[in-house]
Predict the 3D structure of the following.
Amino acid sequence: MMLAILLAVMALLSAPFCSKLLRATFSRGSFVPKFEPLVLGAITNFFDTLGIGSFAPTMAWFKFRGLVPDRVIPATMLTGHALPIVTEATIFLVLLGVKVDPFLLISCIVAFVAGVVLGVRIVARLPLPGVQTGVALALLLAAALYAMANLKLMPLGGTAAALKMPWAVAAVATNFIVGILANFGVGNYAPTLIILSLMGMDPHLVFPIMASGGAYGFLIVGRRHLGDSRLDVRIALAMAVGGIPAVLVAALIVKQMPVEPLRWLVVLVAVYAAALMLRSARRSSSPEVAPA
């Protein structure tokens, strides 16, 4: 029953998102996806399905190539990765099922979505250097989490499928904060997994919380971002077109492969991109640039 509800809500949110994405792309004059973001969406979502994560590599590539302005990097990621994340969540929810406490699951999902929606307003009101600094810190956090994963420093977790009230409240608060941070490019997978595992939950049972929250939250705020004239919707469309089949291949055909060397590569790239972003933030806040 819970699985059916989760999938039904995803479908209800996906339909208007897809409609607005296509209408926005048509209004900008072209349905033809750009090649570079299409390949980027395919690669990042392929490895996200295998456990590497898509946000840090996407942010780094956007910065290196200058594909989008710094201010709309998080918005472009949330919009472009929304449908691939829905695809990923649907596959794994069907394969793994939902065995976590329903109260904890719904509470965490609602908290994450609320955080994502609030985070949109926070980012919109921040000056450009603040957004650039936030993205840089998100990259450094991602690099630290990848390094911890490779060094086997991640918590092993327990066997619990539910949490007692004090810990349940803490889990809900954590998801709310992670939802806010998603608007700066912090993926919800690693922070949620680490914190709930430390609370004693079975890591495998955390996935419905992460997947459902991410899918719902990104569809909601992504649809909102599609109305932003600064967002290149062709990039978002290309990422979705490339990402969806890549998720299917990774989840249903490849299933697993060694990812430690790739994580170390992402660590190096993320740290370098963070340095570039911090330099941009410093330049943006300098007196010579500020008036412009």
About this structure: The chain has a mean pLDDT of 87. The chain is about 75% helix and 0% strand. The radius of gyration is 18 Å.
